[in-house]
Amino acid sequence: METSPRDSSRAGFVAIIGRPNVGKSTLLNRILGEKLAIVSRRPQTTRNRILGIKTWRDADGGTNQLVLLDTPGVHRRRANLNKFMVQQALDSLDGVDVILLMTEVHSPRGGEDPEEPRVHRIHPQDSFVLEQIRARAPTSPVVLVLNKIDRLADRRPLLPVMAGWAEQGFDTIFPISALRGEGCEMLLEELASRLPEGPPLYPEDLLTDQAERFLAAELIREQIYLRCRQELPYSAAVEVTRFEERKDIAIIEALIHVEQESQKGILIGKRGSMIKAIGTAAREEIADMLGCRVHLELTIHVEPSWSRSPAGRRKLGYE
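User: That's the sequence. What structure does it adopt?
Assistant: Structure tokens below.
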């Protein structure tokens, strides 16, 4: 008996989890083929769980739908805003069909033997993340991804890394470059094969369940991470106070909350140069997302120690 397209369809939830700055958001954007999650080279850029939906037809006509959960980096610090972020990540493990554990590889340090396994042992933070997964979701299938292989001029160091993870019980390991796309198609096929059979969970043309208002705030916050130094980005939060879509333009007003007057001065910059640069770049990103012109107005507001106050975090949606 022939299998109908509906019978061969698969759909389910996949949580992307790992320590900070291993490329989880870059992988989400790569799989979706569009920018949804903000990225920067700074660790802990992602603060909230981001849901992205990838739907495609396979060669047999069946529909595959991955509902991907991009999560903040899991780390040991559990105070203030960090506690919220780690909890967001661990809560995303509940009820998912597959867990994608992501880490990264590095070139060996200068002068060391590239064949020496001790140089490539599992990172202690990776071991901590794995402990959290096994404690929270002990029966969930876990797919291991080794990201950033594009940084390796010599791929031989992958072998001892993969051997080390194999000792942890992983028999399917995917070396990839989320930045360049290498290995991502095979990973996509593997994830789809592990999903339960069934029809799509969301409309096939839907990319995310996040409101455009939230995504606009994230794109503004991304520019702060990309342009400001030291600790300022970690003390900044963005609140969209007006989001009005007209026929051919979106009117957006946003507050950038910081914790100190000195941070406000840095964000404004000399003669307003910094806030202008942030606004210009964010406006272009938001316009690309919305597909229309954008009028963006940014105001900086000092909210003393908001990240260390339960009331402050709650006000800005981080509690």
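Residues 1-6, 109-119 have pLDDT under 50 and may be disordered.
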